[in-house]
């Protein structure tokens, strides 16, 4: 054992004497430590504040271990990289822990190539209703909204922590689309999957995972970062069980959900040369489940926080909603065109919620440039979406919650170019359409029926965000009040209609 330890120490020392070399004409940045790079110099609680580029400009470099990465700040450079030079910046890292977990399969971590393209196209067309069986995306979302309403009914007049409810609701909407079923809010199957996802995310962002990222020589060792792989395998096992159940109950050519559509696709392309297969399917399902849960539920929680603490905004939304939906049981996504103020409020809540601040990391697919700098192929690129969402000069009120950011002089809804919470270009969020529909239908239905108030014993509202890959607001309690007799009437009508 002693000689093994000595050998490792020797290797580590050797690495310490290797100087980190910056490629020629590479963007400037803080001096990296040998082996460790710059990661340990970042604030672990809020790394975003160190990535603002005040010191090095809107394009600067930092080292993840001994590998260089480039941070892009502000609309101009983010757009140049992701939109103008989309194909050159559309890769994903292949050397990080998350790359090793997904092994390049599925969509989110798949490299730019035919498998990614086939799966992205398949998922987009399937979600846009070309194969979700009898029930559209909108109907499935409205069904979940009715369950949220029922749940909130029991807190009416009091307060509740909305974290669990919104998380389960977002996860149910994705489950309904991909697995054809939603789960009761106390169902053990879904609670276990969510718990696994939470544990996995926590470990994947923990100190051992960081060590895995920055010291590649440690990777083969049986250190605690193996837990992340173990947890990931457990989630995959869970998905595989659902797949097996589906295979037994499906009728080919009559899809009930995205999983059935995928199985049909495998049948259609069984004669070889296709990128569709069982392993890809499991990764795709896991991708959609992971990407579609935290993101939407954190945004909803932020939106509620801002609405509760801005009663005048909430009341104006309520008036607009009541007017447009008068006499009808449900809202529809089409109604957004008649609700400029509500649209502005939801977009503003999304801007302030800043849910995926550093996007998903990209890599350069060929040697390329940005401003006057050269980036070699394979450079990790970090688009700082947060910097764009709060960029001075792009917004009337960059640092405060104000729906006026999305309204013109005559009160029409306008979307500034710097509204990039879903990123941009060829890797733009695949779930953007779904997420926008969810946010609209959930918030419009809830604001129509309830007034949300900051509870008297809620302390001082805290708008700071917790960073953990995605950002989320700190836990808070949501005060729920049913609006007027008309509110009662509509809720009954609504719950009856959705049975
Ligand atoms: C990718 C944001 C909801 C599925 C992304 C990216 C961002 C993002 C910033 C990275 C884009 C890039 O690499 O440049 C959000 C936000 C959401 C949301 C803010 C909610 C408010 C969803 C939902 C789904 C989803 C509901 C499920 C269908 C995906 C997938 C990708 C992705 C599959 C990878 C796309 C690719 O690599 O080609 N999302 N997302 N997202 N998102 Fe979302």
TrEMBL record:
<dbReference type="Pfam" id="PF00067">
    <property type="entry name" value="p450"/>
</dbReference>
<keyword id="KW-0560">Oxidoreductase</keyword>
<keyword id="KW-0472">Membrane</keyword>
<dbReference type="InterPro" id="IPR050182">
    <property type="entry name" value="Cytochrome_P450_fam2"/>
</dbReference>
<keyword id="KW-0408">Iron</keyword>
<feature type="signal peptide">
    <location>
        <begin position="1"/>
        <end position="23"/>
    </location>
</feature>
<dbReference type="GO" id="GO:0006805">
    <property type="term" value="P:xenobiotic metabolic process"/>
</dbReference>
<keyword id="KW-0479">Metal-binding</keyword>
<protein>
    <submittedName>
        <fullName>Uncharacterized protein</fullName>
    </submittedName>
</protein>
<keyword id="KW-0732">Signal</keyword>
<dbReference type="GO" id="GO:0016020">
    <property type="term" value="C:membrane"/>
</dbReference>
<dbReference type="GO" id="GO:0016712">
    <property type="term" value="F:oxidoreductase activity, acting on paired donors, with incorporation or reduction of molecular oxygen, reduced flavin or flavoprotein as one donor, and incorporation of one atom of oxygen"/>
</dbReference>
<dbReference type="GO" id="GO:0006082">
    <property type="term" value="P:organic acid metabolic process"/>
</dbReference>
<dbReference type="GO" id="GO:0020037">
    <property type="term" value="F:heme binding"/>
</dbReference>
<dbReference type="InterPro" id="IPR017972">
    <property type="entry name" value="Cyt_P450_CS"/>
</dbReference>
<dbReference type="GO" id="GO:0005506">
    <property type="term" value="F:iron ion binding"/>
</dbReference>
<dbReference type="InterPro" id="IPR002401">
    <property type="entry name" value="Cyt_P450_E_grp-I"/>
</dbReference>
<dbReference type="InterPro" id="IPR036396">
    <property type="entry name" value="Cyt_P450_sf"/>
</dbReference>
<dbReference type="InterPro" id="IPR001128">
    <property type="entry name" value="Cyt_P450"/>
</dbReference>
<feature type="binding site" description="axial binding residue">
    <location>
        <position position="429"/>
    </location>
    <ligand>
        <name>heme</name>
    </ligand>
</feature>
<comment type="similarity">
    <text>Belongs to the cytochrome P450 family.</text>
</comment>
<dbReference type="GO" id="GO:0005737">
    <property type="term" value="C:cytoplasm"/>
</dbReference>
<keyword id="KW-0503">Monooxygenase</keyword>
<keyword id="KW-0349">Heme</keyword>
